[in-house]
Amino acid sequence: MKKVSIIGAGNVGANAAFYIGEKNFADVMLIDVVEGRAKGKALDLMEAAPVRYYDAKIDGSDNIEDIAGSEVVVITAGHVRKPQMSRLDLLETNAKVIDTIIPQIKQYAPGAILINITEPVDALTCYIWKKGKFDPKKVIGMTGVLDTTRFREFISKELQVSTANTTAVVIGGHHDYMVIIPRYASVEGIPITQLLPQEKIDNLVKRTRAAGSEILSYLKTATAHYAPAAALAEIVEAIIKDSKRVLCVSACLQGEYDVKDLCLGVPAIIGAKGVEKVIELQLTIEERHQFEESVAVIKNAVDTLEI
Amino acid sequence: MKKVTIIGAGNVGSSVALYLAEHKIADVYLVDIVEGLPEGKALDAEEAAPIRRYDIELRGCTDFSCMVDSDIVVITAGIARRPGMSRDDLLNTNAKIIKSVSEKAAQYAPNSIIIMVTNPLDVMAYLTLKTTGFALKRIVGMAGILDSIRFRYFVSNKLGISVIDTTAMVLGGHGDSMVPLPRYSTVAGIPITELMSKDDIDKIIERTRKGGAEIVGYLKTGSAYYAPAAAVAKMVECIVRDKRRILPCSAYLRGEYGIEGLFVGVPVMLGKNGVEKIIELELIPEEREALHTSASAVKTVIEKLENLGII
């Protein structure tokens, strides 16, 4: 069984371990600096295994050395938003957390593929890549899989159709400037632009943009963690199984979409080597414009960090 | 648990039973007129249950009465063409079988939804409709899903990507009368027309059109059954679990796409009532024409059966 380490045993990290366990495709090492937290959650998950029929090993540790031998390392460390906060407000605080993790990853799991979900995801994914001088193919930010799964759920609710084989493409940054492309959103291949009036689509797009805040406004003291963890598990599975999934992720671009040295959301083929290929879409002028706005926001954020 | 009866315990029928069991979708009754065949296959599959962890009921019987009160009846009955047999002889024989099976379905499972698999399925679905007098939405044929999943597999193969992210839309009947719609076929929502050359798409269409024959070419004495059974199982799942998935199936049209009073493969929403809705796509003239050609082929065969007095 291949090994996946998850740094950060909060709600997102623990739920990602849960989803990976349920699908039984990798052993999981949960890591957290808070003593006992990772171990306790891992033990709880293993005690559910006999009834849930998984035999993947889920273990916990407060020693980051235990990431050794991982094929994939998920970084879900740092702070999460509180109501009224923007994701970018977390930039400086969480960059400091990342600073402590990067050298450890370089030492103990130098060849692993890294998936970052620490907010703000695009900027910090870029920070990890640059600061750690990692191979850009091996650094991935979890953004679009979450945005698309939310959009797909809203589409299926609106049309009262199954979520299976709804598709969606969301590119750009994982924030208010995300670029949702309705003509690529489909039900069994039929574009939603043929199935819904523009006004309805606009509402779904708006809801998707604010979907993280919608959950936060309900939970108040916690952010969404089921859908984000499910999105993480989806990317991890594609890497572990080398399944060449086409997923929207924050990829470190080196000229694709005319963007250089920045990580942001694009559709990409995900397999054992990480981001195996960035798919370049033919964007309309309006979409291109939105995309460039997104690029500017992320670039500004990254520029404030010392790399 | 819902009850699904599968008429015909051949390779397709028994593979449908296996897929349904694996996903614990419903209790399954396999019915066949060949003594021992359905009982043997059902028992064999039951004996795998402890390892495969399904606890649905799987029964085999040769008496049609065991289909009583089924929620869904899948019809895969019929004989294969034998040497020296003309296509018309085959049609004639199988139409008689379908007619008699349909009468049994109406008798024992009057509230069921019928999924027609026996070819020519658009015609056989019509024959069942006439025989049972069931509501239109309760009879549906397995058509485009099979072609769509073959198409999707070929696309994923060509592009080197996971099949999970592909979609495809194939209307009309199987084979020559198939109407593929590449612009509604996508990878994660991106139309394949943006990802592949026209030449590659044409090759995939051609291979899909001959998808059944390709498998026969390998097997020689039999035809494909895993992919056809998987397609049927997907339809059953959508109905039993009220999935409301949009899938290309053969449904009775009353003016949709300009076609009246025939079963033709079109996108439908499948849910607990059967055909919940027929989706009318925007077609370009060539696509529309191809769909109408497919419909007239169905009409010709129906007329043949009417002349023989079977319908």
TrEMBL record, chain A:
The keyword NAD applies. One of its GO terms (biological process) is tricarboxylic acid cycle. InterPro entries: L-lactate/malate_DH, Lactate/malate_DH_C, Lactate/malate_DH_N, Lactate_DH/Glyco_Ohase_4_C, Malate_DH_type3, NAD(P)-bd_dom_sf. Keywords: NAD, Oxidoreductase, Tricarboxylic acid cycle. The active site is at H174. The keyword Metal-binding does not apply. It comes from the Bacteria. Its EC number is 1.1.1.37. SUPFAM superfamilies: LDH C-terminal domain-like, NAD(P)-binding Rossmann-fold domains. One of its GO terms (molecular function) is L-lactate dehydrogenase (NAD+) activity. Residues 146-304 form the Lactate/malate dehydrogenase C-terminal domain. NAD(+) binds at G8, A9, G10, N11, V12, G13, D32, N94. It holds the Pfam family Ldh_1_C. It is an enzyme of class 1 (oxidoreductase). Belongs to the LDH/MDH superfamily. This is Malate dehydrogenase.
TrEMBL record, chain B:
Residues 3-141 form the Lactate/malate dehydrogenase N-terminal domain. It catalyses: (S)-malate + NAD(+) = oxaloacetate + NADH + H(+). The gene is mdh. GO terms for molecular function: L-lactate dehydrogenase (NAD+) activity; L-malate dehydrogenase (NAD+) activity. This is Malate dehydrogenase. The active site is at H174. Residues 146-306 form the Lactate/malate dehydrogenase C-terminal domain. Catalyzes the reversible oxidation of malate to oxaloacetate. Its EC number is 1.1.1.37. NAD(+) binds at G8, A9, G10, N11, V12, G13, D32, N94, V117, T118, N119. Substrate binds at R81, R87, N119, R150. Pfam families: Ldh_1_C, Ldh_1_N. The lineage of its organism: Bacteria, Bacteria division WOR-3. The keyword Disulfide bond does not apply. InterPro entries: L-lactate/malate_DH, Lactate/malate_DH_C, Lactate/malate_DH_N, Lactate_DH/Glyco_Ohase_4_C, Malate_DH_type3, NAD(P)-bd_dom_sf. SUPFAM superfamilies: LDH C-terminal domain-like, NAD(P)-binding Rossmann-fold domains. It is an enzyme of class 1 (oxidoreductase). Gene3D superfamilies: Lactate dehydrogenase/glycoside hydrolase, family 4, C-terminal, NAD(P)-binding Rossmann-like Domain.
